[in-house]
């Protein structure tokens, strides 16, 4: 079984074991090679939370999410899988999003209950294809708290474009989860580079068209466990959702993201 941050946390919450660190270099996570950011600069960034499943220390955070509408949050499909939650998502009664709060130990911002969950039925847990889900909130966010997904063909997807990934995930690859929001600068890579890095293995298969990958030639900057479902932003638009990768921040193993244009298309077509 692939080990995920959330799974480790779930185990910790239910069986009182210490989360196991992924085998990763000392430079990982938002976020490896990252820096602290003020939530006011990323008002569309939300945390997915369940204190029942993941404990209260970090407000129950287990994944990231991003608001694309006042009542619509995108996240990764795998964040809502039983392997992560340890239960079917509808059984997780206290599933919420936390908005407007950068420091998970503080109490600013808002916690909003999730009214409806839609998980992409085409999500393939083996290849990681179609890794997105939509949460409908029980109460609207402020109008300024949304970001627009970049449509297919948008210049923001061009290889070489500078992008920023946000999250509360592992900052070292050793299970050091952030309490305050962090971000990391990465570069969009070409499909050829991504395909070469991930031709198909137990970690996943890079699928041009529905995924994108990003990183730095020398490694070091990446998302990591706990960042899943969170946004990759370029030129002020959403281009990806944190999905998977082999380790965190490793040379030759860039982070892989669900391509935002594919999500928008799927949703536009009535899901
Ligand atoms: N699957 C991970 C999670 O559940 C996110 C992995 C992202 N990894 C990476 N190297 N970019 O949080």
TrEMBL record:
Source species, domain of life: Bacteria
Keyword Transport tagged: no
One of the Pfam families matching this protein, by short name: Trypsin
CDD domains: Tryp_SPc (cd00190)
Location of this chain's protein in the cell: Secreted
Keywords: Disulfide bond, Hydrolase, Protease, Secreted, Serine protease, Signal
GO molecular function, one term: serine-type endopeptidase activity
Chain ranges of the Peptidase S1 domain: 31-271
InterPro entries cross-referenced by the UniProt entry: Peptidase_S1_PA, Peptidase_S1_PA_chymotrypsin, Peptidase_S1A, Serine_Proteases_S1, Trypsin_dom, TRYPSIN_HIS, TRYPSIN_SER
Biological process according to GO: proteolysis
GO cellular component: extracellular space
Main location (coarse class): secreted
Residues in the signal sequence: 1-28
Official protein name in the record: Serine protease
Natural source organism: Streptomyces liliiviolaceus
């Amino acid at each position: 079984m692939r080990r995920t941050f959330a799974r480790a946390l779930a185990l910790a919450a239910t069986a009182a074991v210490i989360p196991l660190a992924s085998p990763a270099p000392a430079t990982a996570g938002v976020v490896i090679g990252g820096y602290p950011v003020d939530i006011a600069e990323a008002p569309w960034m939300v945390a997915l939370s369940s204190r029942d499943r993941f404990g209260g220390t970090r407000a129950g955070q287990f994944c990231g999410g991003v608001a694309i509408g006042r009542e619509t949050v995108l996240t990764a499909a795998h964040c809502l899988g039983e392997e992560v939650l340890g239960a079917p998502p509808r059984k997780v009664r206290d599933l919420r999003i936390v908005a407007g709060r950068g420091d998970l130990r503080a109490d600013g911002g808002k916690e909003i209950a999730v009214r409806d969950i839609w998980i992409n039925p085409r999500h393939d847990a083996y290849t990681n294809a179609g890794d997105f889900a939509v949460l409908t909130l029980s109460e609207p966010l402020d109008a300024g708290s949304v970001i627009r997904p970049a449509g297919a063909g948008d210049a923001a997807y061009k290889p070489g474009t500078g992008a920023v990934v946000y999250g509360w995930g592992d900052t070292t690859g050793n299970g050091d989860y952030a309490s305050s929001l962090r971000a990391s600068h990465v570069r969009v890579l070409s499909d050829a580079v991504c395909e070469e890095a991930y031709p198909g293995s137990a970690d996943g298969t890079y699928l041009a068209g529905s995924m994108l990958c990003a990183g730095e030639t020398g490694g070091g900057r990446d998302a990591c466990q706990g960042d899943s479902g969170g946004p990759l932003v370029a030129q002020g638009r959403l281009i990806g959702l944190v999905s998977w990768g082999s380790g965190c921040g490793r040379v030759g193993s860039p982070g892989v993201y669900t391509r935002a244009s594919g999500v928008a298309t799927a949703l536009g077509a009535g899901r």
